[in-house]
Structures are given as C-alpha cells and as structure tokens.
Records
---
Amino acid sequence: MEDLNWAQLPFGYYKTSYNIRCYYRRGKWGELEVSSSEYISLHMAATCLHYGQEAFEGLKAYRGKDGHVRLFRWKENAARLQSSARGIRMAEVPEELFHAAIKKAVQLNIDYVPPYGTGATLYIRPLLIGTGAEVGVKPADEYLFLVFVTPVGPYFKGGFKPVDVMICRDYDRAAPLGTGNIKVGGNYAASLRSLQQAQEAGYSTALYLDAKEKKYIDECGPANFFAIRNNTYITPDSRSILPSITNKSLKELATHLGLKVECRPVPLEELPTFEEAGECGTAAVITPIDKIFDPKTGTIYSFCKNGQPGPVSTMLYRKLTGIQFGEEPDPFGWMEIID
Ligand code: PLP
Ligand code: COI
C-alpha cells in the first residue's frame, strides 16, 4: 500500500486484508471469524435479498498526531445498530461483540489506517443481514454480522469546501412513521432517484423535506442538516431522519463553545434568515452548504460569502476534527485508542 496516494483517496471501496464475520444461529451469536475473502456465500432465499432485512453502520478510525489510532464514539454506533435491528426485527448485536469486531477489523488492517496529516481515515462498515431462508414475509432466524474497513478521503470532493444542494420535491426518502430514523438499506435505495435527479441538475446531493407536509427541512441524502444564526446552532428535530452521531457531537460541542442549540422542526421559510448552513455526518464530516436550490419556486438561497465556509462552521469543524485526530484535548471522552 506504499503506492497509495492517501491525500487523493476518494470515498470509495479499496480492498484491505481482512474482514470480520460472526453468525447468529439457533438463537445465539457464535465466535468472531477472520476472513480474507471479499465475498459471502448466501442462500438465494435469504431475507436480506427479498425483504430488506439489512442494516449497516459507518464510523471511522483516525491516525492521530501522536501516531495512535483512535475510534470515535463507537458505543453510539453499536446502540444505533441495535435500534436498526429492532426496527426491522433482526437479531441485535451485543455491544461487546460490536466492539470486539470493529477493533479486530482495524487492528488486522492497521497498515491501511491513513497517515496523520493526509485528511484520510479508515472507514469502518459494520453490516447486519438476514441470512435465513424464508419465502413468506417474516424475520429470518439466522443473521450475519460482518465488518469491513476501507481507507477513504472526503465524501464530497474537496473536503471542507462548500457544496450546492437541491431540495427534493418529487420523491420521499422515508415515510413519516417509516424507517427514516434507522440505518437500513431500503432508505438508501429510496434516495437514489432523488440523488440522481439532484446530480443531473448539477447539485451534490438532495435535501429532503418532511414527507407529510413538505413544510420542514428533514435532512440531506447522506448527512443531517444544520444552520447557524445569531450564535445559535439550529438543527431539525424529525422522526424521519437518522439520529446522526456527528450532529449529536456538534450539539454538545456548540454548547461547550458557548453557542445556543435549538433542535426543533425547521420550517423552509427560515432558510433566508440563516447565516450559515451545512451537512454533518461521519462521511460528510462538516460540509458547508453554499447554495440551496428550490425547484418549485426557482429560488436559490446562498450562505457563503465568496464561496468561503462561515466562521462558526469553520470553528466547529476545527474542534471536531481536532479531537478526532488527537490534536486537541478530548473533554467529552469521545475517543478510544486501539492500537
Ligand atoms: N443521515 C443519513 C441519512 C446518513 O446516512 C448519515 C450517515 O451515517 C447521517 C445522517 C450522519 O450520521 P452519523 O453522523 O452518525 O454518521
Ligand atoms: C456515513 O456517514 O457513515 C454514511 O453512512 C453515509 C453514507 C456513506 C451512506
């Protein structure tokens, strides 16, 4: 991997040496298994293929300034995977099993954790799927929990560089009482049409409104939405968005830094009043939003002066990534050294 150009890595799949697997059979989880194969052998009637019994997570390992490798708030990902599992009636992965599997996956691929200073990280993708064969619609009785890792660069080209997004008016990503608040594959399948529509119109991603009334901002395709106004961090409260761990952390950081935090329904009409806007997530980190285009009215809302990220987004980005890369103290106890 010496020939890997770490600083230019896209957010994509790159083969690493090992992945970790664990099977749930006869009502219990087995031992962790190490595999060097990129493939899985699956029954053709597995419920993940037919009835969408699939959930995943996304977190990162960071090579710090001191050379150590750190995980960020993995317990939150473990809890969210359990919530996703309950949401589509899959076997839950115990927290200790989740921790052991992600730690092992990183440790066995430690040479793929990108060097400090390149901006790249090792993305960890835990996956839980129904593997038991069923034809009637019901939960499987067998599951596979798998963890692979892959070195990645920024999700949006350029990293901490403003992007333009398009409000999605033609499709919904999640129903009001549906599965938008858990991380299941079906939500992402439902987002592909709007993503393509936004990209064909020249935008980086879609911004979803609440599915019921189309009055409130929900979230972006792969990340939560936030805005800044009057020293206040404002982010939507909605039953149909994914509870982002990055957003949760930014709310805590914002409070710590003396900002006010408002988590509430955010009406579309408030857009012109915001001083800054952004997306946040594991993959997106903080991605400032320059323009938001509403195809219904033709309105373009702008948030960046001379294409530059705003001061509060910049401060939050520096603080968050400073903690993640071990450049700053970690007053919240978010990081765990694992090498
Ligand atoms: N919203 C959606 C739809 C996502 O896919 C993600 C990514 O995981 C997020 C928000 C951000 O969540 P997190 O900060 O936990 O990565
Ligand atoms: C993440 O931020 O980890 C995500 O899962 C977003 C996207 C790649 C689906």
Note: The mean pLDDT is 97.
---
Amino acid sequence: MKPLFKISLSIALIGFVAFQGCKPKGIQASAGGDASKAYVAPGKYDEFYDFVSGGFSGQMSVYGLPSGRLLRVIPVFSVDPEKGYGYSEETKPMLNTSHGFVPWDDLHHIALSETDGIQDGRWVFGNGNNTPRIARIDLKTFRTAEIIEIPNSAGNHSSPFITENSEYVIAGTRFSIPMDNTNGDVAINTYKQNFKGTVSFISIDKTSGRLGIAFQILTPGINFDLARAGKGKSHGWMFFSCYNSEKANTLLEVNASQKDKDFIMAVNWKKAEEYVKAGKAQKRPVAYAHNIYDENKHMATSEIEKEVLVLDPKDCPDMIYFMPCPKSPHGCDTDPTGEYIVGSGKLAAVIPVFSFTKIQKAIADKNYEGEYDGIPVLKYEAVLHGEVQKPGLGPLHTEFDANGNAYTSFFISSEIVKWRISDLKVLDRVPTYYSVGHLSVPGGPTRKPWGKYVIAYNKITKDRYLPTGPELAQSAQIYDISGDKMKLILDFPTIGEPHYAEAIPADILIKNSQKIYKIEDNQNPWVAKGDKYARVERKGNEVHVYITAIRSHFNPDNIEGVKLGDIVYFHVTNLEQDWDIPHGFAVKGANNAELLIMPGETQTLAWKPDRTGVFPIYCTDFCSALHQEMQGYIRVSVAGSNVPISFSMGKTQTTDSTAVNK
Ligand code: K7E
Ligand code: CUA
C-alpha cells in the first residue's frame, strides 16, 4: 500500500466510523471497521465482476467487487428504454414468445459458462420465471445474444443451472401443468391425473453458444425449485430440489407442507443421452420461440420451433431417482468435489448432506424405501453423509469455498452460517440485514471457488438506508471470509430484487471486452455507411430515413415530405469507431423510447406521427462539447399534401444519385 493511499483511506475510515456513530447500536457493532477491505481507490479496477439477477426487474446487473459499484444493467427479459432494448425494431424480436411480445419477466438465477468446472467468462445465462425462457448474454459485449422459450413448462424457476463443461443449462418447471400437446382445458382439481412436470436439457454449442432444447424428461406433477449439476466424480448427474410431493393444487402453504420429507431428484443425464440416441424419446408437437441477435446484422430474428423430444422415465430405467429430503427443500447445491449434495429444507431443523458415493451404492444395491409414481425412492439413511444439527432457521442456499467449508443462508433467522463439510460442524455465524435469500461466493458453485468474500442478497432493508417512500432498496452485503470468522465489510443497494448472483475474476473478462463494432462488418439491411448513403425514401406509406450520426450532427437533419398516416422508420447508423461513443436518438411524441446506438451499429426507431407540424429530433447521449447542437427537424404535412420528400444537412442539398427522391 502506498503512503498516499493510506492517508486518504484513514480519512475515509474516520468518516465511516463517525457515520456509524449515529446508527443503532447492534448494527454499529457488527459493521465494525473493516471497510478498508471493500475500498477500491478512485480510478482503480475492482477485483471481480459480480453478475446479479434483477428478480422482477427482468434484468441482470453487473457490480464490481469488493466496491459494490454498479457497472451496468444488462437488459434481458424486460424492455429497457434507456438502451432502446425491446423498443428498437432490431431488438423487438428478442422478446417474442409463443404468446407474442412479452416485454417483462422475472429473472432469478445466473449461470456463468464453465470449462472443466471452472468459470471461463464466455457467457452468462439467466432464467425467465414467468413466461419460461432462458437467455444467453455474451460477455464480450455484455448484451443479450439469445433467448429460448421452454415448452411444457410454467414458472421456469429451477433454471438455468449449468453442467461443468457447459454441455447443458437446465430448466425445471416450478408449476406442473397439463402438457402442451394435450387439451389443457381441464378442471384444476384433476391435478393428480392431468398435471405433469418436466425438466429440460438445453444444449450449448461449444463455439457459437447457440442454444437448443436437446430433450425434456417427463416427471410426476411436483414443483421443481432449484438444481445443481454434479461435477468431478458426479459429472453426468443433475440434482433438482422438489416440493409439493403432496401434489396440492390449492393453499400450498399448508397443503404442500404436509409431508416430513419431499425429494431431491437425481438425474443421470448421460444415461438420458443414451436413451435419446437409442430412439426412446417421443417427438411432441409444441410451439416455442427461439430468438437470436446477429451481431453483424445488429438485428434479432425470432423463429417458432415446433417439436421437442420427451423422455418418459417409464421407458427409461436407471435414469432418475428420488432422495427423501426434509422438508420443502429450496436450495440444492453440490460442493466443489462433486461428492456432497446439500439440500436446504425451508422448514427443516437440520441441513441434510448427501454423498454421491453412497447414492451410487444405494442404486447398485437397490436400497429403496419405495417408489413415487413408479420412480425409485432411495433410502434416506443410505444416501446421507450426515446432517448439520441446529444450523439456524429457514435454510435456503449454500455456497462453498476452496477449503472444505460451506456457507448457508438462513432467511428466518437472518444469518449466514459457515460449517465444515467433512464433520458437519458449525464454525461461525453472522447476522444479515435482513432476511438473506441467496448468497454467493465468487466461484462458489464451481470446482474452483475463488473465495475471499461471501455476498448476502437480502430481502428486507428496513433501517439500513435513507427512507425512500413505501419501497426500500433491496440490499447486498459483503463479508470477508479470508479468516476464520466472517466479517461484514460493506452494504450496497441493488437494482430490482436480486436472487442469485455469480462473481468472476475481472482478468478473465477484461481481455475479451469489445470496444466497438466495426463499421465495415455492419450488415444491417438499413445501414448507411457514410454521408453519401444518408437518404430518405418513401415506400407506400412507409418513410425510411437512413441517417448517420457522428460528432456532432445527424445527416440528414432537415427532413420534409412526411404525411399524416405514414410510418417513419429512422435507421440510425453510428459512424464512430471510438470506444465509449454511443449516440442517442429521440423524436418528440414517439410512443416507444430512445435509441442508443453503439459505435458501428445501426438501430431503427419506428414513429407514427399523430399530428402535423415540425418535430425535433436530437441526440440523447452527451457525446461531445457540441452534443447539444446534435439535433434536427422533421416536418409532417397533411395526408393529401404534395410536399415532396426532401432531406438535407448544412447548406448543401445532397446531389448524390442514391439520395434523389424517386
Ligand atoms: Cu431462493 Cu427464486 Cu433462487 Cu430467490 S430463489 S432467494
Ligand atoms: Cu451524439 Cu450527443
């Protein structure tokens, strides 16, 4: 540490301690003094990128760790007017589904791509809970590159969890439902006869990342909550937590809490692959949207796919097993070695830890306690490594460090508990402020945890921040876990309602981060690659404005000849080839949003004028000293007007032949 840094840090610390002085006593004590560990000096980079789910915001946000600085919000399942996502003609198809345009969703879980069980920094995946979807975000550009809808599913909560070589992300349905190819118009109280669950295996192309639904497995009508892939010795298996083994269809808070134990479902997906190869899967008619953003065309396309392969466990022995798990399990997490599977029963008084070796032995010995809908149920004692006794109340999720320790979040007792996997001893506990949901250790779900911190994502903030009306910010808290005891070092408010998050060392991503799109590679059908292509064309009642943007003007910036009843398409190409120089574009009265166009990119805004007059257009992103001069006018005349199409910039009416009004 340089001396200068020390001085400014101690000033910061004095401020910090003084500020703590006016807080309630309990909080002050627990926040005690290790803020230096979260301090990243101005101008310095953070050590980790933290990808945080936005919950009901439908987005993903990116923070630096350990500073908690917000770096970016990535629009995924919800429209984002700030970036024009879901508003521009090029991005609208990303939000297409079999139900049409669905501009919102609920994103709970993050999965970073892995090679050999280690984060490789290529892609990050997120789930849409409401209208079942999985998204792939490209980590070169931090933009959503693909969204695939999941058929035969409702409430895609148990998703997206990734296998150790990114073979698959999986998607387990939370709600069981009548299958898509059956007549779903049935009485709800026929649940037990007509409702089924599925878990889907979505393959990831090794080079392009392109997703495809490889197969689905039909399951009893229970609810899938969370999942984790096996790794190392348990690679080839996937573990799903299930609740509502009672198969209740009403008042689940009571009716789905009847049994002492629900299940963790163990799926041998290597075996499932064999069954698919052997032709055991049934082709079922379905309809689901598959949306891909083409980086060269700067444009998304959406296709409706029509078929899915479904495996029925009846035809596929040795593919799935149930393990009893107390009581309404939520989290289901595998440790870095792949030997231990931790089930967190929301209503359970212990944390059961299962052993993969014992599971294999119980399967070989057919050590079953019975069947559930024809699927073998392994004996609890036979597969149990042991139980963590008196851990806390309301265990939800568990993450791991590289030293054989586990960290479990407790919603009801509002704490993180550190325990040792080998002997199941509780080692430490710290309060969270308040009611932690997920927690996350960098690399925590992988074969190689990076450790250093555990971050709590809390549901309730109460007195932690200045009041902001009826709704308060959700909050994350960072604890230093480098020593024996966990130490709270920072609170930071978050966007939306975070559930899961995953952090990755910054070095892995920085080197791949893209700075611009090359204008020569731009294959958007409406691109204008320079002034000579700037033009306005009428096609029936469509007016296409091919407009270029470069500091600090639009070309053209005076446009006439639009008539009421026309739809105007502004195709804006940003000609800049410098990092961090987007231009924005907005027109008065537009019913959608702005465009925010990256260097080398083309984006299109559709505008249907509702009245005659002259309407300003302008750049919305402060791009230069003369940003405020980056503006123009478009004139709208009456429907039968004979004002011809014309366009210009500066004094010169263009005389380029491509630009002449035909
Ligand atoms: Cu526990 Cu939706 Cu992962 Cu929230 S879920 S906390
Ligand atoms: Cu371009 Cu401001």
Note: The first strand starts at residue 48 and ends at 53.
